[in-house]
């Protein structure tokens, strides 16, 4: 049986708000783990998976804004990777909806890898870039953080996931 997915400092990209959003993604994956373990049923599992995908979409778009305002040279490439990740998980959602796949521990493992490989492999790169080049001015980060929190709190209000978490 898979264990809880724990956050550790190795996942930190050095930007607090990004780390907070990544932690929420971990929390959602753990919530899905619990739902599978306690056999909460497919409707509950699908609901959590949908929330994970919605939250991921918002996170990606906020991350892209940050990379753009920070002048990150691999911005285009990173956007392409985000798109590929979303396509991959959307294909999975469709398979589940049509009964070709079920929400299982294997799927959970896939989602964990999907998330951690991207954070450790790609998000870390812009984190390092910003640290080394100092191109991300504090004012940009502060403005972006404010924008992000606003977007996330709007999402929180309309999302059902937050109600039972
Ligand atoms: Fe990313
Ligand atoms: Fe990210």
Structure, explained:
This protein is mainly alpha-helical. The chain has one domain: Up-down Bundle (Four Helix Bundle (Hemerythrin (Met), subunit A)). It is 77% helix and 0% strand. It has 6 helices and no strands. It binds fe (ii) ion (2 copies). One fe (ii) ion binds at residues 22, 59, 63, 119, 123.
CATH topology: Four Helix Bundle (Hemerythrin (Met), subunit A)
* Unreliable stretches covering 5 or more consecutive residues: none
Per CATH, the class reads Mainly Alpha
Q: What radius of gyration results from the CA coordinates?
A: 16 Å
Largest sheet: none
Ends apart, CA distance between termini:
23 Å
Number of strands: 0
Q: Enumerate how many helices there are, as a single number.
A: 6
Instruction: Identify the CATH homologous superfamily.
Output: Hemerythrin-like
CATH architecture: Up-down Bundle
User: What is the mean predicted local confidence, pLDDT?
Assistant: 89
State the shape: elongated
Number of structurally distinct domains: 1
